[in-house]
Request: fold
Amino acid sequence: MKVPSLHARCLEAVGAERALLEAVCTLTAASRHSAGSVLETLGAALAVLDPAIDAVLVFRPDAEDLACVFAAGGRAEYFAELRLRRDGDSLPARAAMASSPVVLAPGCRPVIPTDRAALAVPMYADDALCAVTYAASAGRPISARDALIRAAVHAAVPYALARDREADRASATYDALTGLYTARAFRDTLQEELRIAAIGCSVTLALWFVDTDGFKGVNDACGHAAGDRVLQRLGSILREHLRPSTDLAARNGGDEFCAVLRGEHKSGAIARAQTFCDAVRACDFGVGLPVTASVGVAAFPYDAASASELFEAADATMYHSKRSGRDRVAYPDGRGSFTVHR
Reply:
């Protein structure tokens, strides 16, 4: 067998270092997009650094388990939802417990049965385990072990940063208590839809404004924890009465909610609001006190020409529901006043 010259080995080392540097730069850039982009970039980089790699799995700590969050390669696809015990004897679990890379050795059980060679690398950011990368080959031995380890280690910080950004975006978009949209995210979405309508696109939608009747009494008598449970259940009822493919619900703040019904005309939105109102009245919230909803319905383009006007119309209509006795649905009558449904 011909032994590579020193010059050839030096060129090979320089090429490997350059490939690793390019991978690190690409991983950093991918972090600006999403955590998934970082993992896709890592999977591609590992295959470039060592062509023997034909399966990549990435596991994220999840309570007592390591949950697979990424799979690349035909052999890996079946294992895309795999969960491993963090205290088990799998290669990723061993790497996590040892806080150092672990290679597949005789007597070890591979994650994928057809693996002939494998490497598990724990990924740490700010001294916390954020993932474990598992790279495997069904044929040739792994020759670029050091480069693979360094790539996975370098991917840890971009991956953690991308996840933090996604968590920040989610907290700005979704209400922590109910899981519905926040008021700001909801208003931004509605404004964008009506901006599109303003440039000539045909848009029909309705807006519900919902206020929880008797909520202060629940908080005063049963405590804020019970009040939170009421709001969570009310949010669930609201979601159940919307079409998941088109409609959107939000917690407007405190005990107020709102929902946009896309493609819904005014009469249909009023009828559906009444069904929702009836469901709230019939629900046992487990607090021993009556909980109902006052709903205001306004529709575009019938009652408003812009997002701000639509919000004002629905809000004013909701207050008319409350002034009219609560536990009811009201809507603008088109003559500068309001009508209570039923």
